[in-house]
């Protein structure tokens, strides 16, 4: 199964993340299938490739909780018309 998830980049205290499509059983720094965005938590900047995200989710990819939250904050699911419900109940 392919999952969009975060890959860590940068040095200590200056971390940024790239959002990549990767096999769910691969390690965090493993070989990615495709890079679909980036996220900078220090500046709250998000850059996403909407067409790549919709293609992955359309094929059945399940994003991790963090990537799903980042995407919701960026209003990705509203822009592309996907009704993505969280499976995690609090």
TrEMBL record:
One GO term of the cellular component aspect? small ribosomal subunit
Q: Which GO terms describe its molecular function?
A: structural constituent of ribosome
Quick one: where is this thing mainly located? plastid
**Record's keyword annotation contains Coiled coil:** no
Q: Which UniProt keywords apply?
A: Chloroplast, Plastid, Ribonucleoprotein, Ribosomal protein
What are its GO biological-process terms?
A: mitochondrial translation
Instruction: Name one matching Pfam family.
Output: Ribosomal_S16
Enumerate the Gene3D superfamilies for this protein.
3.30.1320.10
- State the superkingdom: Eukaryota
Q: State its location(s).
A: Plastid, Chloroplast
Q: Does the keyword Plastid apply?
A: yes
Recorded family membership: Belongs to the bacterial ribosomal protein bS16 family.
Protein name in the entry: Small ribosomal subunit protein bS16c
